[in-house]
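Worked Example 4.2. Read the sequence first, then its C-alpha cells.
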Amino acid sequence: MSCSMHDYLQHANDLAQRGTVFVTVTLVEPEGHVPQDIGAKAIVTERGLSWGTVGGGRLEARAILHAQEMITRASAVVRTAGVIQPELVRYELLRDLNMVCGGAATLFYELSSRPSWKIALFGAGHVAQATISLLCTFSCTLTCVDSRSEWLSRVVDRANVIKVLAASPPEIVANFEPSTFYLCISQGHATDLPIVREILRRGDAAFIGVIGSEAKSRTLRSTLLKDGFAEAHVAAIHCPLGLPMGSNAPAEIAVSIAAQLLQERDRVRVSGV
C-alpha cells in the first residue's frame, strides 16, 4: 500500500468516525497535459478541500464545488429512500475550465455513506442543544426538529446534524427510517405527547426517550394507555430519559442521555432486535 493511499484511508476513516459526510474525488482518466497523475485523490467536505489534490487550480476548484453540491443534495434526501449515486464527469480543460494547457480529465466522485445510527431529536432548547453538541461527535446522523427558527439557529452546525424547521413537528415523524432512535426534548408534555403518539403508531422505533420527571412519566403512560396503545409498547418508553446520574445542568443531562443511548445502541446490535 502506498504512503498516499495509507494517508487517504486514515483521513477518510477519521472523518467517518466523526460522522462527517465527505466526497472522494479521484482522477481516473487524464488526457494530455493534466497537472496530476491517474489515481490522484482528494477528499472534500461541506467546508471545502480536506485532504489531497487532483491537480489544483481551476480543475480542483470545479471538483470541490461539484463535491459540495453532492453533499448538499445528500442532505436533502437523508430522510427519504433516495441515494446519491457516484458520478463520473469528464472536463475538457480548455473548453470547460479555460485552462490553456489543454487536455482533458475525468473525475470520479463518490459520496461517503452516512452513519447507520439514526437519531431524531425533537426540541432545540438548552438541554437539546447540549445533547446534540455531544451526540454529533459520535458516528451517527442526527436530525433536530423544532418549530422555532430562533432556537434551531443555536444548534451546533456539523455535517452530521440536520436541522428541520417544522410548523407541526409530529408530522415529521413519518419521514424517518425504521429503527430510528427518537428523543423527545421539546417544550413539555403538551408538545412531546403528539410526537410520541406518531412514533408509536409507526411501530418501528429502536428507542423512544422522553425527558421529564417521574410525575410526567406517569401522566404520559396513563394517557397513552387510554389512547389504546399496547401496554408493552408504552412500557418500553424511556421516561425519564437518561441514566440516573449527574445534576440538572444541561451538560450533565446530556451526558446521561448519551450514555443511555450508547448502552441501548450496543444492546440492540448484540441482540439483533
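Now turn to a second chain, presented in exactly the same format:
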Amino acid sequence: MRYAWDGIRRRPGRSALTALGIGLATGLVTVLLALSAGVEGSASRLATASGVDLIATSANTTLSGTTFPPVTNAHSIPTGFARADPNVAAASPWLVTSFVFANASLYAAANASPTGSAIPGGWGPASGEGVGWIPGANTGLDTPSVAQGPGFSSPGDPHYANGTYNGPFTHEVVLDDGMAGILRASVGSIVYVSVQSLASPAQALGWYHNATPFRVVGISGPFFLIPSALLGFFYLSEAQTLAGAAVVDHDEASVVLVHLTDPSNQSSDQSTLQRAFPSLTVFTLSNILGAVQSVVDLYRTFGTLIGLVALIVAALFATTVLTMSVDDRSQEIATLRAIGFARSTIGRYVVEEALSLAALGLAVGLAGGFAGAYLLNRFLVSLLPGLPAGFSFVAFDGTVVGTAVVEVLIIGLLAAILPAVRAVRLPIAEELRAP
C-alpha cells in the first residue's frame, strides 16, 4: 500500500478530485437508499402501531387507487363484523371527505359588508379533510389524542338515531392543531363548515348562510393515517349530512378500519369477513404494507438507475485518472520491472492505488450522504406538517452502509482494470530509453 499512497501524495489535486467524484456518486446512491429505507421503515412501524389489522372497502377496490367507492350501511358494520367474526374487537367506519372551514372572525367581517369589502386581504376559509366516525367504535385503534378540551360528548352517534337521522345534531367538532392554528380556534370557539368553496369575498356572507356552525370540543395532535395537517373530526352521521343528502340516504363511509383481538392469523379473519360481506373487499395489514412496498420499490428502482449512471461515470473518471497516473510513472514502472518486480506485483500496485482512492471516496460519500439525507429529511418534514413524532423519511442501516461499501469496491476494481493492464504491458526497453 505504500506505493499506492505515494502515488496519491504525488498528485494531491488529481487524487482529491478523483476521490470527490467517487464520493459524490456514492453519496447520491446512499441518499436514495436511505430515503427508500426511511419511508418503508416509518410506514411499517406506524402501520403496525396503529392497531389497524384489516381495512374493508367497497368491492373491487384496489389499494393502488386514488379514490375509494363508498361503503354503504356503515352504521350497521361494527355489529355485523363482530357477529360474523368474534375475533373482531372493533370495526370503525370512517367517512373521509374534503370540507371548507372558516371562523367567526371572518363571519363578523362578512356581516360588516355584504360586498366583502370589510374582509382583510388574505382572509378566507381553509380547505381541509373531514373525518366522520363513531367515537365508541375506535377501541384499539390509534386515533389522535385530544390534547385540549373534553372531546366528543357521546361515544355513539346521536344524530343517526337508528337510521332516522332525526336525533340531536351535536354540532361538535375536534380540530387538529394545524387546522386550529389556521382558524385561530380554541376549545369553545365556533367554526363554520361546508362542502362549498368560496370564490370571492363578495360571496362570503352567502357562504356562511349555507354553512353549518360547529363548536370546537377538542384540539388534537397530528394524525398519520391521513396525509393532511388540516383535519376536522365529526360524528359520522353529521359528516354524512354535511357531505350531502345522497350520502345520508345510503349511510356511506369511505373505509372500515378493523382491530382484531388476536391479529396472529389475519388472513383467516379476512376470509371470514369477505364471505360474510361479499359487497366489501377486505385487506390485511400485510396487503397494506405490500402496497407501500410496491411504491417504495418503484422509487428504489428509479434511484438504482440514477445510481448506476453515477457509478459508471465515477468509474470512468477514476479509470482516466489512474491511466494518467500510470503514464506519468511509466519509466518508474519499467525500472521496477527491470530489477525483477513481477507483472502481478505491478498490477497489484495499480489496484491498491485504485482501492485507496475508492476508500477516500467512501469516506467523502458516507459523510456527504449522511449530511444530504439529514437535510433532505428536514426539508421533506417541513413540507408536510402534521407528521407523527418519530417519522423519518430517511434511515441509515447496515444495508445502506454495506451497499455503499460494495459500490466503492466495485468502482475501485473496475477503474483499475485498464490501467493495470496498461502498466503490466509497458515495453521495458522503450520506456527506459525514453528521455
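Notes for the reader: The longest strand covers residues 88-103. The chain has a mean pLDDT of 81.
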